[in-house]
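Reposting from the mailing list since nobody answered there.

I have sequence plus structure tokens for a pair of proteins and want to know whether others read the tokens the same way I do. The first protein:
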Amino acid sequence: MMFRFISNEALKILTCLNRTSMTIQQLSEYRNSTPIWGPVEANSGSVYREVKILQHWGLIRWARQRGEIQNIYHITEAGRKFLRDCILIETSNRFDENRGFTSVVTISDIMEKNKRSQYINERRVFVRTTIGRIKKSKSLLGKREKARQLLLQYHLHRFQGELRWLDEINGSQGQQNE
């Protein structure tokens, strides 16, 4: 399970606002009419709550057109960067689901030694690449991008821990082969 200080619904709101600016009412209607959001109650209150959280983190902001009474919400540049980083991490989590920690442990018990070593090395390359991408994103952080900083720091530590674990497994296999 991945740590999130922002809910899945908030990420979906960011995704919507990345496409086009919307009011809370439009976000609620879109949420209720879009199957990928899953079945939900017609409750704009929950959307409002998520919007407030996103505003707090500086990922979205609102503006009002002349003569309009509703706020129109826009994603900020920090929000776009945050969403890009979330996509990077979600992509690596897809790999985790199919070939991550649990798979490595299970597969390492049943695979031949040479295939096991190849599999672990592939995973190490993937984790190192992901760590490099996260570090690159961290180096480009603005001083006010606290949400991205927390997200990237958490996952950097997670992947660094996995890399140490994979190195230990690989080292212990080398000792067994001697």
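The second protein, same order (residues first, tokens after):
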Amino acid sequence: MISSIQQYIHNPDGTISLKGRPGVRVQAIQEQDLERATAAAHAMEQALSLPHYYEQWQALAHATGMSSRMVRFILADESVSRLSGNPRYQPRNITWPASCGLEFGHRGFLVGMLTSISQCFDLSAEALKTIGVDVPVEGACLVGEAQLFNSRLADKAWEAIQRGIFTHVCPLLYQQPNEPLGAGKLVEVSLVTGELPGCQNARILKAWHW
């Protein structure tokens, strides 16, 4: 399945917009070693035997329903982000739709759908451990769960999680002009390597079959 969100256009002035959404501008991660991230992306493609051409990705992403594979992750906490200006994400001011896609490595193809998001506000480290959050978080956080599609690209995503290639997620937010940085409406979540998340604590916690 193709994402309707992550179809990026790189403009001559250096800005990034979305195909078919002229009023939207993308805030890219700035504190990133681009050369290292590109090398990591190429290494991932080789390690997972991924194709080179768009049509081949389309075929891989064709889904025939849902699988029994689930993923749990920190969606965002209040730590300093890697976005331009280093704002902190604001989990208390993030909203989300009834349906939200899970995307493969910012490649523009969906591999699943979010099934739930839990607000973990004002919880101690011990309380977080009781719900399976045993990694460092700062302040309030959101915990998401997603179910993978039955597709060959979802198979690759599952393999990447199992092999420790996909270790984090990256939330994509639509921010209104009057909203503070780090707030907004969640529109999609990407499975990513450790080089790519805007929120460095947005780690994958668990992957399992039901």
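Reply #1 (J.P.):
I read it the same way you do. Helices lie at 34-47, 54-61, 125-130, 152-162.
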